[in-house]
Amino acid sequence: SLAVLQALEDGLKKADADPSVKAVMICGENGKFSAGADIRGFSSPKRHGIGLAPIVSLIESCGKPVVAAIEGVALGGGLEVALGCHYRIAHVKARMGLPEVTIGLLPGAEGTQRLPRLIGVPAALDMITTGKHIPATEALKLGLVDEIVEENTIEAAIRLANKV
Question: What is the pLDDT of residue 44?
Answer without folding.
Answer: 54
